[in-house]
Sequence to fold (148 residues):
Amino acid sequence: MKKQILIIGAAIAMISAANAQEIPQNQVPSVIVNDFHKQFPKATDIEWEMDGSTYHVEFELRWNIDHEIWYTTDGKISKHKEDISQKELPKAVLNSIEVNFKGYSIDDLERITDNGSIFYKMEMKNLIKKDWDIVINSNGKIINQIVD
Fold:
């Protein structure tokens, strides 16, 4: 069952990626471009896409810190995904990890802000036990966990 969910999720991601079309920055509304450059003046490797009715931008800040932002057509950020370090995790998330994944290490850590709610997505690695892909909210509640 879990494997089927993972396969379905991967299929949805591929379909979404296929529907998104890369576009030049001059095709993005100026309100979005101006807000983006104001918030992230040091962004590099900027790539814009039209993803359904949202504008999606991928970029880097500093050395190899990936970001993805989805803007509504009126210029509001609806979702922001960013690479973070373990030091940036809230205490409640760290406590939840310690209780539920003792002996695991964290890999591929992302903070996702989705319409005002904050989530943390990560891989939990262990040389002996099964690896997990998990999503935890900012209060430390595990929202989703899938065996990797």
Q: What stands out?
A: The radius of gyration is 17 Å. The helical segments are 2-19, 30-39, 91-100. The chain has a mean pLDDT of 87.
